[in-house]
Amino acid sequence: MKLTFFFALTFSFASLKAEDWPQFLGADRNGSSAETGLLKSFPKSGPEILWEADFHKGFGGAAIVGDEVFIVDRIEKEKDLLMCLDLATGKEKWSFENPSEGEPPYPGSRSAPTVEEDAVYFIGPFGQAFRINRKTHKADWVLDMHKRYPDAETPKWGYAQCALIVGDILILTPFGSETGIVGIDKKTGKEVWKSGPIGNTHSSPTLMSFGGQEQVVLLTNKGGLYSYDPKTGEKLWATALYENRIPIAIPTQIDEHRLFATGGYDGGSKMLSVKKAGDDFKVKVLWETKKGSQVHPAHLIDGHLYYLANENSNYKAKAKRAKGGLVCYDLDGKELWSTGNDPFMGRGSSIYADGMLIIQDGENGVLRLVDPSPKGYQLLAEANVFDSNLESKKDLIYWSNLALSQGHLIMRGQDRVICVKLKK
């Protein structure tokens, strides 16, 4: 059983079903699902592939609500697309497109959409934010962050944020010399509040609670971690005790007074204490490790942390890869085990469901089911679901976020999306 918190966070998915995966990292935005009855082993032929669909190259993961799959795609230098597919067949039900010039390094979409009962929200790599009406399939509004905020500056690899909605507020990140993070009325697109400059990031804002106070937390490349009241935009705290020059992974909340921040590019990871003292918050480092996860966040499972250690610098060096792979730490900072180079799994994505980690190998797309145990790496099953050349030394860039609903696992490998059946 996953460690539970003694507070409730105000995401806007009350009308959706428990098995839905309505946004980046699932309903609770922590990479976990309450689904049960999933496969714990595969036949020799591997799990059943229910369908596959061709896409343009990109990184945008899926959201799943009811019988519909939503994925952001992009035609290079031409336009952004929101695709709605049938969950059972993978056939297109409808789509929305919007012109977009230019292209960031590593072409393609970045974000996963956020789906509510009446609308879908997504963000393009050049800072256009969209509210798409689920009935009309047209935009209720489009907000170009560069036009709304002339000081806005596109991050190195484009805007990669996934839309965060807290109540009636949509959190966006212009990242300018005067404007950092903003709160937008989700129905009208009008500004409710904005903060001062905070640098930029490829990490997404996430909702946490410390000292009984709900807050939006964001890791940036200038000043480290920032926390804001999602309703008013009041800055609650900020700390440079953990910084990363190119942040991508979101921090993981441990409990009401701790969070775990991680990243690549030799930024390592730190466990931070965040405690309220009077009207202020005090932050301090509890422990740190040189091992970090470059793209995806750590999982908190039964009082232990699990993540794929990939610091970018250990990507090609065999000796350094041997110190990476899937790692397990206790909450006091003791490393209990790591898989090293066997398997390494690169910048792969993982989710937690039915007592196991479901991992997409970031280099070749191999699907692995792992029993998360502090005693050591316990592989339950694996399958080469993308039919990759496993002898190839090339990273095929299978970095997209996974999505799971009703036993359907949506996996993306750049220009291919497949649906794997994880229930009998």
Count of β-strands: 33
Helix content: under 10%
The end-to-end distance, rounded to whole angstroms, is 23 Å
Rg computed from alpha carbons, rounded to a whole number of angstroms: 20 Å
Structure class: mainly beta
Spatial order of strands in the largest sheet: 1-27-28-29-30
| General shape | globular
Largest sheet: 5 strands, mixed
Residue stretches low in confidence (pLDDT < 50, at least 5 long) are: 1-7
3D architecture notes:
The protein has helices at 145-148, 318-321; strands at residues 32-33, 49-54, 62-65, 68-75, 79-86, 92-99, 114-115, 119-123, 128-133, 139-144, 164-166, 169-172, 182-185, 191-194, 206-210, 213-219, 225-228, 235-239, 252-255, 258-262, 269-277, 280-289, 299-301, 304-309, 325-330, 335-338, 349-353, 356-360, 367-371, 378-383, 403-405, 408-413, 416-421. The protein is mainly β and 424 residues long. A hairpin with a 2-residue loop joins β21 and β22 (280-289). The longest helix is centred in the middle third of the chain and has 4 residues, at 145-148. The protein is globular, with a radius of gyration of 20 Å. The two termini are 23 Å apart. Residues 1-7 have low confidence and may be disordered.
Task: Describe the secondary-structure layout.
Blueprint: E1 32-33, E2 49-54, E3 62-65, E4 68-75, E5 79-86, E6 92-99, E7 114-115, E8 119-123, E9 128-133, E10 139-144, H1 145-148, E11 164-166, E12 169-172, E13 182-185, E14 191-194, E15 206-210, E16 213-219, E17 225-228, E18 235-239, E19 252-255, E20 258-262, E21 269-277, E22 280-289, E23 299-301, E24 304-309, H2 318-321, E25 325-330, E26 335-338, E27 349-353, E28 356-360, E29 367-371, E30 378-383, E31 403-405, E32 408-413, E33 416-421
Parallel strand pairs: 1-27
Antiparallel strand pairs: 2-33, 3-4, 4-5, 5-6, 7-8, 8-9, 9-10, 11-12, 12-13, 13-14, 15-16, 16-17, 17-18, 19-20, 20-21, 21-22, 23-24, 24-25, 25-26, 27-28, 28-29, 29-30, 31-32, 32-33
